[in-house]
Amino acid sequence: MVINDFIHAIAGFFILLSLSLGVEASPIFVSQYWLFFTAFVGANLLQFGFSKFCPLGFILKKLGIPESK
Fold it and tell me: What is the pTM of this model?
């Protein structure tokens, strides 16, 4: 896997996790404030689409994840 794959996988996981913690119909509901985290991840993905800068990508690069195959 390359950095882009990791970014999408981690973002998808965080979105699903925060939705399950923030939606009242979920069996593991904690608080509606978790939906702010969902919005944060979505906004980060949006700005990545325009600027090609992602803090998670920077961290993964420092951890030695390859940028391309």
Answer: 0.88
